[in-house]
Design goal:
Elements: H1 3-27, H2 34-53, E1 56-57, H3 69-75, E2 85-87, E3 93-99, H4 101-104, H5 111-122, E4 125-126, E5 129-137, H6 140-149, E6 156-158, H7 162-170, E7 175-179, E8 187-192, H8 193-203, H9 208-216, E9 222-225, H10 231-244, H11 252-262, E10 268-269, H12 272-280, E11 286-290, H13 291-295, H14 298-303, E12 304-308, E13 317-320, H15 325-338, H16 341-349, H17 367-380, E14 387-394, H18 402-414, E15 423-429, E16 433-441, H19 444-455, H20 465-482, E17 487-494, H21 504-514, E18 518-522, H22 527-534, E19 541-543, H23 549-560
Parallel strand pairs: 1-16, 3-5, 3-6, 9-10, 9-11, 14-15, 14-17, 17-18, 18-19
Antiparallel strand pairs: 2-5, 4-5, 6-13, 7-13, 8-11, 8-12, 15-16
Helix pairs in contact: 2-20, 2-21, 6-7, 7-17, 10-11, 10-17, 18-23
């Protein structure tokens, strides 16, 4: 064969090969969704990055597990001074009130504060002494814990919903009603206008029954808040259970219905803000909120429809049975002051009292049932799907001392709120990354290794936060090959200062492609840096000072683990 013929043959071979391999390349993703393509791309990049990081492997050490449940509940709570006093008492004889944030916050959330300031300026007297009130902003669920454990007991308790009072009574604290309603409010489900129209078209109307059925069918993404802390979340939980079995919300029928519903809930938000951000980013088509907050937010009221549900949020005021007659009289005077025409007009300006005709279709439930419903939620929220979670602990030099001690204490204390059916691992990082404990089912043996590994952490060196996140993501990814239906979660505990290795821009696309939520817990931290990590997949970022981190992690794990 002459040279010219050989050359032609070589060209033909090259062209054929190019066509074959080009065809393979061009058709490699046929039949795959964009999500699968994105995940595969993220996994490949992640594997290459982890190979470069080359993490060390620690030697897990066992440590005995000792839980003192009687004392722990009170010890988990931070000092009450971590909850801000919004209006200070101005007299020696006064009554303190723990109030929920939507009326003891700022701006249009500060109605009760205004009433207290005006009340204190009036110079009311009891038995010849001038009196005043003091308002402390405390989430309803946390206020219940303070009072029930006896760690901090105010004279007055003003939660959003009577449900918390019923639970408090069931826990052995006797209360007396001062006012059944300081100010009126209702909880509701917010649906995007498109989703609302779709449900109306298919189900005829929008109510809790239609919404739960549509969620079960996977027709839209529904979100709600933590029922251990949020009034709207607790209300939604018990009403959803009653929707499946009105006579017994704890029955097998109710539990099975809740599991079907929960299967299509992307996540239960730790805070209303986390849930709202997820909705704004397009991850949720529906979520829950009180009407007063909804009507004060132009973006929400313009883009979402509000459908009331469940028990009213009428903001009762109760006193604990042990207070003195003088302090009870102060609360009675204050409740009467809040019922004046002037006070009601101001409340209306702030968005309260707007749906006074709404009544709940369900009969009241006991506090014991509400407590049992929370336990049912904890056991069934994942619908038999385990959580695969890795804790990423910052042990850099800036964590030395109090921050690291707080990290260790909070993790060890909060272990008991992780369901043993979940799969848990631990990574630490400074200049380098160490796999302290490979992922394993969180049975008693894994718990002893986890506790021992946490206890043996020590601080020194730089801060390779994103290297550690890469390693943890890779651990979760590999574990999910064995348990593909599991729910992945990553928890970063840090002061937020990254100065070694990869940065957020290097791994943002990987986080987005894998869709693994990264919860961040900051210890005296650069919170903006941590919030940037969590915001990629709508996870929560917690500002956990050394005083309240134990309780913060308890709340987080009750909601998600």
């Amino acid at each position: 064969m002459n040279k010219k013929a050989i050359g032609i043959l070589a060209c033909v071979i090259v062209l054929v090969c190019a066509a074959v391999f080009g065809g393979i390349y061009a058709t490699r993703n046929i039949g795959k969704s964009e999500k699968v393509i994105s995940e595969e791309s993220a996994e490949k990049r992640l594997s290459r990055m982890v190979d470069k990081i080359n993490p060390d492997t620690g030697v897990p050490v066992k440590s005995p597990i000792e839980y003192d449940s009687v004392d722990d509940e009170a010890n988990e709570l931070p000092d009450i001074d971590t909850c801000k006093v919004q209006v200070k008492a101005e007299t020696s004889l006064y009554a303190e009130i723990f109030s929920s944030p939507e009326k003891a916050g700022s701006g249009t959330d500060g109605w009760l504060n205004e009433m207290a300031s005006e009340f204190n300026a009036q110079g009311f007297q009891v038995d010849g002494q001038t009196v005043s009130v003091q308002i402390r902003n405390v989430n309803s669920g946390q206020a219940l814990d303070y009072i029930a454990t006896g760690k901090a007991v105010p004279e007055g308790f003003a939660p959003s919903s009577i449900l918390w009072v019923d639970m408090l009574n069931a826990k052995g604290t006797t209360t007396e009603t001062i006012s059944e309603s300081l100010v009126g409010n209702v909880a509701g489900i917010l649906l995007s206008k498109e989703t609302n129209a779709q449900i109306v078209e298919k189900y005829g109307s929008v109510d809790l029954k239609a919404i739960t059925e549509a969620t079960e069918a996977g027709e839209f993404a529904m979100g709600y808040t933590n029922p251990f802390a949020s009034s709207a979340g607790l209300n939604f939980l018990i009403c959803t259970l009653e929707r499946y079995d009105l006579n017994n919300p704890l029955s097998e029928t109710a539990t099975a219905g809740f599991q079907k519903f929960q299967k299509n809930v992307p996540f239960v938000a730790l805070t209303t803000m986390q849930m709202r951000e997820a909705a704004e980013n397009g991850s949720l088509d529906g979520f829950i909120m009180e009407y007063q907050s909804y009507t004060n937010d132009t973006m929400l009221s313009n883009n979402y429809t509000f459908t009331p549900y469940g028990y009213r949020h009428d903001n009762p005021l109760v006193c604990v049975d042990s207070i003195s007659p003088e302090k009870k009289e102060i609360l009675n005077l204050f409740a009467k002051f809040c019922a004046s025409d002037k006070a009601k007009a101001r409340a209306t300006e702030f968005g309260f009292n707007s749906m006074n005709d709404y009544t709940c279709e369900y009969e009241p439930v006991s506090g014991d049932i509400l407590t049992a419903a929370q336990k049912l939620y904890k056991t069934n929220k994942d619908n038999g799907r385990p959580v695969i979670g890795v804790f990423v602990a910052d042990v850099s030099g800036s964590m030395d001392g109090e921050p690291l001690i707080a990290l260790q204490t909070s993790l060890i204390n909060s272990m008991k709120y992780i369901n043993p059916e979940n799969y848990i691992g631990l990574v630490s990082y400074a200049d380098d990354v160490t796999i302290e404990l490979p992922i394993g089912q969180f049975n008693l043996e894994q718990q002893t290794y986890f506790k021992g590994s946490v206890e043996n952490l020590y601080a020194s060196g730089g801060t390779a936060t994103f290297d550690a996140i890469c390693v943890a993501l890779n651990m979760i990814r590999k574990q999910m090959e064995e348990y593909p239906d599991a729910k992945p979660m990553l928890f970063v505990l840090s002061d937020g200062e990254t100065n070694v290795g990869y940065n957020l821009n290097d791994i943002r696309d990987i986080l987005s492609g894998l869709k693994i939520p990264v919860y961040t817990i900051g210890y005296n931290a650069d919170l903006s840096a941590l919030q940037s990590i969590s915001s990629v997949n709508e996870a929560a970022s917690i500002d956990a000072s050394t005083d309240d981190v134990v309780y913060q992690l308890k709340t987080l794990f009750n909601a998600n683990m």
